[in-house]
Every structure is written in C-alpha cells, then in structure tokens.
Amino acid sequence: MRCDEARRRLAANDRDTAASRHLETCAVCFAVLETSDPLAGALRAARPADAEAPERLAHAVLARWRPRRARAATALTAALAATALVIAAAVELLVGVEPARLGDLTGSLVVLLDGLAGILGALLEVRSALFGAPAVLTAFAAVTVAACALWLRLALRPPAWRWVR
Ligand SMILES: [Zn+2]
Fold first, then answer.
1. Where are the domains of the chain?
2. How many Å lie between the centroid of ligand 1 and the Cα of residue 40?
3. Spatial distance between the Cα atoms of 97 and 38, rounded to a whole number of angstroms
4. Distance (Å, rounded) from C-alpha 35 to C-alpha 41?
5. Closest among 36, 28, 84, 112 to 120, alpha carbons compared
6. Are the C-beta atoms of residues 29 and 22 closer than 8 Å to each other?
7. pTM strictly above 0.90
8. d(CA 151, ligand 1 centre) in Å
9. Contact, 2 vs 11, CB < 8 A?
C-alpha cells in the first residue's frame, strides 16, 4: 500500500487494518499522522519540564546501597536450597519406595565416610608436621587471628565506599 492511500484511508477510518499495518512499518506516515493529531500536541505541551535531581540525592542513595550482601545472601540461600533439593532427590531415587534399600545407601555413606577419614588423616599429618615446627604453627595462628580480626571489623563496621571523580 502506498503512503498517500494509507493516510487517506486512516483519515476516513482509523480502524482500517490494512492501512494500520502500513502505519506500523512506515515511519514517515507515522510522523505525518502524529504531527496532525491535536491530542499528541496537547500531551507534549502537558508534559512537565525535566528537572535536575537534587545534588545530595545520589550521595543519600549510595550511602544506603548495600547490594552485595543481599545478593550474596540470596545466592547462598539459593545454592543451599538447591543442594538440599539435589540430596533429597538423590536419596529418594536411591531408596525409592522400599525402605530396605536404605541399607544400600548406608553402605554408600560408609564409603563416603571412608573418603572423609582419608582426608582427615592427611590433615592429621599436617597437624603433626606443624607441631614439629612451633615457629610455623605460631605464624599460622597469627595469620588466622589477623584474618579473623579483619573479618570481624568488616562485619561490624562495613567500609563506606566513595566514588572517585
Ligand atoms: Zn507510508
């Protein structure tokens, strides 16, 4: 459909579907019809002028903005919930409707616990080596205490980040 025909048909009947389809794809016709529409001009005139945001607004919003904690807590909660769901589904799949299968699952748990015992055995080896070198053990303890103190300080009094301009 040509532009002049579409405009003529829309002026006669604004529900003409073929002319409306042309209007959806033709920016020139849309602009012509919009400038001739008195309602569009009235709406443009009624729009309030743009106002600048107060200078202190950005500082007030940024001072109260702590999205990382909330996002981290939400992500941790979702991860824990997903893990619990996976474990529950795995137990349900392994055991099924027969409680007798729970014995098989217990055997799997024993294997898992054996693996954990191996890891704990390695940790015991490290502990024995550290007890053999008290200076290294003291240094590790000092680093641990410093990290805990820093963590506690950040948890109690979060730093007020400022934007560098
Ligand atoms: Zn057109």
1. 3-46, 82-156
2. 19
3. 72
4. 7
5. 112
6. yes
7. no
8. 66
9. no
